[in-house]
Each structure stands twice: as structure tokens, then as C-alpha cells.
Fold this protein.
Amino acid sequence: MALEQLDIAEGFARRYPDVFGPASTADELETVFASGRIASLLGLEGGSMIASSLPILRTFFARGVRYMTLTHWKTTRWADAATDDPKHDGLTDFGREVVREMNRLGMLVDLSHVAPATMAAALDVTEAPVVFSHSGAFMVNPHARNVPDDILRRVPANGGVVMAVFLSQFVSDAVRRHVQPGMDLADAYEREHPEAPSEEVREFRRRWLAENPPPDATVHQVADHIDHMAEVAGVENVGIGSDFDGGEMLPVGLDDVSGFPNLIAELLRRGYADEDVRGIAGGNILRVMRGAEAAAKRIQAERAPSEATIEELDG
């Protein structure tokens, strides 16, 4: 399925070259953007897609994938997810080898969706800056998907970036508490129907939300997350990671990409300097990409591709 979706993404760029431009490096991204097009990067949201195989990880990199979220909603054989039962106290030995091999390739380690123990373990082992591609601040809204302060405090030393998510249940504590019963029912439905396709489970959630509409989240609340992350991790380590296709509920004024100016204006109203807003809007993730590229160049001169297997490392 991942390979099929990569082909679809590449097809968009082929069919609409005046709109989309493929990019696999920070320099390519800036070149495409300067041409007035949307720079399109490829990523994997969920380490399960490499089937616990470093050769498959390398195959995805060769296909242009430049970041991978270590887990999605479920814990894998080698990494704990934030929204599933922990099994590994973060990362197994193979999970740590995945991070090292991603560093060697120049593939960004994405720590959104993973458990705090996984975040900590990845930060312990990584030799390159990491990214939290779509997360909020746990202290602003205690959702399991958000990043706790003890992790945020480690981001400056790593040089990574935490990118503020827009999904209402991650942004607003009131929305989180309102929708939790429906999410619990959806989880129970998924457990009772393990063969049900993911779209069926999503439709179950959509029906529940339609029958139980949540309160609105706001642009101001998204800015509150950015404020907190900037205070704890430093403004140079904060970005925007909207996740527009990740759920049904979005803040008023951030329903789609046309709402980005509303958030930028709110940050400026709060006194952020122009330079800091440029960093949040894209400069900081470009710096992280360049940091990962530089680390890969150094690591490739030091060691060959890993031939380790999950059976050898984890038994």
C-alpha cells in the first residue's frame, strides 16, 4: 500500500508539473518554492511500513522518502506508540538500529505519534536533528499525542523541530474531553472487528462526531501551543505541521491552507519578530533538513549500511 501511495504522489507531480515539484533535499525544496510551485516531499507515517527490515528502509529512501514516523497509532515490533499499550519501554535494540540507519541515510526521524519513552530513546541514540512533524504541547492539552515538557527541553540540544498540529482534539482540552467517549467507542469497535478496513473505523468516528458535535477550537489555541513550545524548546525549534488530512475536526479559521495567514497574523499580534515567524513558517524545518543531510554525509564516511536484523538484535 505504501508503494502504491508513493506512485500516486509521484503521479500528481507528473500530471501537474506547473503546481507540484518533487523535492528530496532542502536545496531542492527552496528551488521549487522559488519557482512558485508547491515543493512535494515524500514520507512514511508509520514504521510498520518497513516490515522490520533495514533493506526495505533503504529501498524507501531510494524511492525518495525523506522522513519516517517511527510509529503510527499502533505499537510496532520495535517501537512504542503514544496511543497503544507499551511493549518495549520505548525502542528495542532493533528500533535503535533503525534510528541509526535513518541517520546514515539522511532520512528524518519523526517522533510524532510515538510514546514519550520512544521519544527519549530516539533522542538518546540519534546523531542528527529529529522532527515532530505534527504534535502539540502536552502541558497545554494533555492528549497522549502531544509532547511533554521533559522532551521539549531536550530538543534544543538535538537541534530538532516540533511542528504545531491543528487537529482540534490535540489543540483544545475541551474538544479532547468532549470527543474521548466517541474515540473510546471507535477503539472498542476496532477491537471487536479486527478485520474492518481503516475507512470503516473512520466512518464510525465520523458518524459519532456528527451526532455529538464538539465545541470549536480556535487559531488562538494553536498559537498557545506555539507559545509554550517556543518558551520551553526555543522559538528556533518550533514549526507548523497542520495535518489537514489527519482528522475531521479543525480549528475555526484553519479549515484549510487558506487559513495559514490567520495563524501568521496571530503570531505577529503576539509580538513574535518577523525573523522568528519566518523560522516557524518554514525556516526551522529547512535547517533541520540540512542538519540531517550533513549528518548523513559524515556518517556515510564512517560506516557501511547496517546488515542487522530484528531477529539478531531482539531475539
